[in-house]
């Protein structure tokens, strides 16, 4: 039995979780939870034992100095709680950590134990994947659930995915079997500029979370960062005609598709969000308290300080992606490599196929979401195709 001391009785609590690694392209999801924790000054009340779930050769601890005293920070998953004020106060339980290396079922059961003790009414798990989406268009965010009733009542997609999965999919299914309503939100990150951070994808996830739980989230400097990020990518793409042509082809494909952004329901959600922000006391305010960063200049760095987006490269005849997912070696698993690009005289072909994990196996690293994500699957609930074996089951007792 989990006993919580010092945690008050919570009001209509919702658990919001994100995990670094395979399900976190561009660090978009983990940054979203970190933003909530920072803006609402979350207080950590529990941390899972790192010894139980992490391989320290994959996710290494860090050493730092505190007043001349050496200390160690272990990779783990921490839980914090924030109370959102206003006319209808409610609490959020924020779960932020790294995808575990082992014992996934025990990991999920421990998180569900906290959810049960705290009276959590809904679990929202955020993730991000790589996709064929242009950086100049709104970031597609899909909401999926395994519960047919929840799909109808909350305007979500009922997941039909079959295949290898990550901790986001495992935790969602664990919640469903435990009778806890659970939703996954997936943001699609442009595969040709996958380096973290991606504030535009983070902003899209938070906007979707706002709509889902009917709660206004202070954005701070996130809107400025998203615009600066897009402007920086625009400038870099303009310097290379091949990249510019490739982005244009993605824009044309996106604009001719039936987009949820153009639907009446999406327009209604945008209008509701506008009213919620206006009624909340104006931009940057929650419950009458102003948040920082609204209205400042959008550009805070120069294009020379940005990482140049890799050129799309021709894919070999085997159909495998060319280096889109080499791991960083730290276990976070977001892709930073080059991406597929068609020949100059042909229309760009959508990258597809399974990633080549030989390089990762050679170095002892785990496969990366960038190397396994199926681009162009923004509406899918699972990002790509990892190795045949489930990482969470291989070390299970």
Automatic annotation (TrEMBL):
Start and end residues of each stretch annotated as Disordered: 299-397
Keyword Mitochondrion among UniProt keywords: no
UniProt keyword terms in alphabetical order: Proteasome
InterPro entries per record: Proteasome_assmbl_chaperone_2 (IPR019151), PSMG2_sf (IPR038389)
Sequence ranges of Gly residues compositional bias: 322-336
Segments of skewed composition (Basic and acidic residues): 343-368
Alphabetized Pfam families for the sequence: PAC2
Gene Ontology cellular-component annotations: proteasome complex
UniProt-recorded name of the protein: Proteasome assembly chaperone (PAC2) family protein
Originating organism: Streptomyces spectabilis
Organism lineage: Bacteria, Bacillati, Actinomycetota, Actinomycetes, Kitasatosporales
